[in-house]
Amino acid sequence: MSPENIPTINNDSQEYKSWRLAKHDKMITPVEVLRDIVLEATGSVLSNHYRIIEGEVNEVYSAETESGQEIVIRIFHGRKIKFYKEQWAFEECAKVGVPVPKMLLVKSTDVDGEPREICVESKLPGVHLNKIPEISTPEMERERVDLLHQIGQILSRIHSIPTNGFGTLDQNGNGKFSSVRDLISNDSYINKNRILPGLADRPDDLQTVLRAYEILEQESESYTSPSSSLVHNDISPPHIFVDQGSISGVIDMENACGADPVSDLARWDSKFGREYPLKYIIEGYENKRLFTGNFERKLGFWKIYKSLTSLSYNIEVNKPTGIRKSLNGLREALILF
Most buried among 87, 169, 267, 292, using CB within 10 Å? Predict the structure, then answer.
């Protein structure tokens, strides 16, 4: 099956779908390279594969070898350590009982003179949480609540893993920043020079973002989380697999970082809370100490931070729908202050 004939999986709005397809059209790896990757990772020959267009960053394939092994191939067009970092995160998660894929191969290479980061991993059983038929209907409420309880338990275990520092991790779980205050002050991804120029002709949005910076700076001065934990940093229904009523695994931890665990919950609540209420995740979360003290204020703080990082990305890739959603999320978070 040639790359141009590989079927795609996609069910988003037309505007976003067109934007994402245009992005993925620029990410095509020759099938000969895919065969070599699979042989190196599994020791078996690639039998069949199809392309999955779900995310925005990686070229992804579901594949099977002649020996019957089901795998996922992910290719990043560039040079980073994202899959090496993910490999560390998966290994640590497995130690505390979190179901994750097994990394079969992680490597850096060049394809036609261009840098690539490649990983091959085992395929989890089941389907994405958001692909379960009628999962959001009243008739499925009991099943949905049970799954959210399981997600809370899994997140609690992920968050039990310590990291050495906050922010982006290296391949050994070391963060770049020593504290939340250090993160807010020096995280280049939310630097004003990265975001404000993209809003120069939108005065109302500009004022919203400036207010967000003000709150982050004020709150970080007295932030009371001296230690950092592993957080998924992109936890979402598409990154959770369900098989026969149970969570069968968590995927896509390439953006994992060191932070306060509240940050994962804040992102979930902002993006998916209406359909998958956070309160049920909290009910299943094992470490109830997280919800004592000023939890709600921390939740608002991280919602602002996550909205800014999302806005920065969407401005960078010129994604209009994403910019609108990020600004709306920012406004909702600011109401808490």
Answer: 169
